[in-house]
Each structure stands twice: as structure tokens, then as C-alpha cells.
Amino acid sequence: MPRGGTFNLLVGGPKANWPADLTEKIVGPWIGVDRGTLRLIEHNVQPVAAIGDFDSLAAPELQRVRRNVKDIRQSQPEKDFTDTQMAVSVAFGDYGAEQVDIYGATGGRLDHFLANLFIVLEPQYKRYANRIRLIDKQNTISFYLPGHYQLRKEPDKNYLAFIPLTSIDHLSLLDEKYQLHDEPIPYPISLASNEFTGETGEFQFDTGVLCVIQSCDTYEARHE
Amino acid sequence: MPRGGTFNLLVGGPKANWPADLTEKIVGPWIGVDRGTLRLIEHNVQPVAAIGDFDSLAAPELQRVRRNVKDIRQSQPEKDFTDTQMAVSVAFGDYGAEQVDIYGATGGRLDHFLANLFIVLEPQYKRYANRIRLIDKQNTISFYLPGHYQLRKEPDKNYLAFIPLTSIDHLSLLDEKYQLHDEPIPYPISLASNEFTGETGEFQFDTGVLCVIQSCDTYEARHE
């Protein structure tokens, strides 16, 4: 069983939001979350583990999951943690993941997306914040605890957003196009449409949890 | 010029997320935000007003906007408020809107979506919270300030989520499938996948700002 390195989670959001050629480009290991498990198998990926109540799967679909995944953790429909949270725990706790990249977390139901976005605010998950990313075809979402950081620009992303998910103190954006200096941020806000001025972006803050989104427009967005 | 009632804003998110037959079903009045203005005109809707820097529009597109909209508010690319925020101010302040429904606010760039989601946390906009909704093909997002409420179930929506956007006190979900009683919520969280037990859902809380999402699965989500 694989240990360490990056684990990829596929949750049940719409395929339309996946990065192009997701399952060919990202080799694995993969963990399936609920219907995401079936989608991995349909794309000829054998997940190392699967988490979910699987109550939306038809009987033959569930059998297909059982045939293809050794480590299945069946969750209860009424539970304190979401399937995605459980999968994050399994990846870090049982498989010793260094990094967890979550796909299929955007689009569709926004209560699901926000549950995924806010995972890192839960006390049990906060310590993993800078090792979790949510990735879709237009956005890479990463998370930061207080400190000083230098962020690397992704080649295909033009926009940079700083999004305090809680109140945070002394936010400084040091070399971005639009800068801030020791700004107190009293409530969640999306400081969107900033840009890198070079290959990296430097920032720091003192308290709270900061989300950073690198994003791009799609061809469709510009031309539809 | 129309006054009062519901004003509809169209912002620039992907059409794929619009409710079906949006511009036929929602008669207006409409306010266009940046590229949303052009999309309204392309759908034979004459917006009462348009807000944006319009810097992503080609010259003929901008001319088309100018020919079709009397009340154009050109914003600066570097500004303290987003175009959507300005449009909300124009609708409530200049047009006396009772309610503002925002379409095109989801999908695509998530820094934009979160900027729209967090508008009601801004002190200048908080008083409008319960008169603003974000609507897409699967989600209706509404906002609440402290109080006691009875929410009406939308016929096509199965899921109900309560999403404190700040810490909130004494959250009670009184007659929903999964109930809470005087629960303190210390940080933003998406209490997702709840359900109505009848035609209405009763809830109350004492402090902070609460977002409520009614959502549905799509046919594609179940069968893709």
C-alpha cells in the first residue's frame, strides 16, 4: 500500500469542473469519496481506498466498487464528519500522506463546495491546512496558517486572490500588483483579482486562516 | 424608470450555471454587471442600468452596450468596491429595489463567487442581507441576520444547508430533519445536506450572519 507523497481525492462534484484529462495526468494514488469512487473506476483508476455511505449508488455500481477497492470505509448517512473530511483523515492518518489534493469539490451543490472550503477551519483539520488543496479546471485553492510565505505562480493562472476565511491580523501583501501593509481584516472577504508581478508572491499575516486562490479565465468564459 | 420590487443582476459567471431559460422566465428589471450586460442584450433584454469597467469587452461590444443602456456607470479597474457591490448599491439606493436577485455569480472563478457570497458581511451591505439572493441552476442562496425565521421550501429543491459565515450564537434548527438547539458555532461551517420535513423550516440565532442554501441534484449529477 502506498505511503507518503501526494494523495488525490476525487469527490462527487460535476466532471465539467475537473481539470482536463484529470485521471490521465494525475497518476495517483487516488482515494474515492462516495460517487467519486465509481468515476475513478470508470476512468480505469483503481483507488487505494474509498470512503462514503454510497447510498446514491445502484446495487451493480456498489458491487463494482467492492470488486475494485480493497480498503472501503462505509460511513453512516448521519454522522459528525463529512465523507470528504473522513477521506482527508484517512489520507493523512492511515496512509501518511504529505499532501492531499482534492478534485471534484467544486461546481454543483454549493453547500458541498463550502463544506470542503471550510474543512481547514475545523480544529481537527487546521494542522493540515497548508497540506490541503482544492483543484478544479480554473482554480487552485490553498490554505495558510499565520506566517510569512512566498507563493509560486502557476504558469496557466493569471489571477491571485487572498481570502481570509476568518478575521486575520496584520495582512501584508508585499510584492503583488495590489499591496497591503499590516491590514486588519475583521471578517471573511475575497480580495480578488490581484496579480503576481513576477514568478512569486510574498505575503504574511499574524492570526486566523487565509485561503489563496490562483485562477484563470477559460476560453469559454471569454467567448461564450 | 422602474422602481421598487425585485431587481435582477446578471454578473459574468458561466452561462452553464444559469437557471434554465433565465432571461425568458425572469422578466426584469435587469441590471447588467460588466460582461453580464452584453449577455443580457444578446438575449434581447434591455438592462435598466449597467455597471462595470467593461475592460474585457471589445470596442464593438462596448458600443452595443452604449446603444442599449441609458444608465451606464463606468467603474475604475482599481477600486474599493467590486462591480457587483456597486450594482447592489445602485439597485437598492438609486432604484429603490425591495429585493435583489443575483444571477451569474457562481461557477468559473471561485474568487469571484466568494466575493459575491461575502458581500453581506461588509458593514455597508449587511443591512440588505435578507433582501439579497444568489441564484443558479442548482442553488438558491439567501442570507439572514439574527432573528427567528420560517423559511419556505422551494418545490424543486431537496436539500437545505445552514452555513454560518461568521461565528454565531444559539443556532436552533427547530423542525428540520437534523435539528440543533442553542448551538454555538465558533467559525464558518457548512451544515449541509439537511432537509425540510414539511413545506417550511423554522430556525433562529442570536448573533452573526447566516447563509442558507436550498439546492438540488441535477439529472447530469446523478447520471454523468
From TrEMBL, chains A, B:
Q: Which SUPFAM superfamilies match?
A: Thiamin pyrophosphokinase, catalytic domain
Q: What is this protein called?
A: Thiamine diphosphokinase
Reported EC number(s) for this entry are: 2.7.6.2
Keywords, comma-separated and alphabetical: ATP-binding, Kinase, Nucleotide-binding, Transferase
One GO molecular function term?
A: thiamine diphosphokinase activity
Q: Which domain of life is it from?
A: Bacteria
**Which InterPro entries does the protein's record reference?**
Thi_PPkinase, Thiamin_PyroPKinase_B1-bd, TPK, TPK_catalytic, TPK_catalytic_sf
For the biological process aspect of GO, one term held by this record is:
thiamine diphosphate biosynthetic process
**What Pfam family is a match for this entry?**
TPK_catalytic
Q: What sections of the sequence does the record tag as coiled-coil?
A: none
Species source reads: Levilactobacillus suantsaiihabitans
Locate the Thiamin pyrophosphokinase thiamin-binding domain: which residues?
147-210
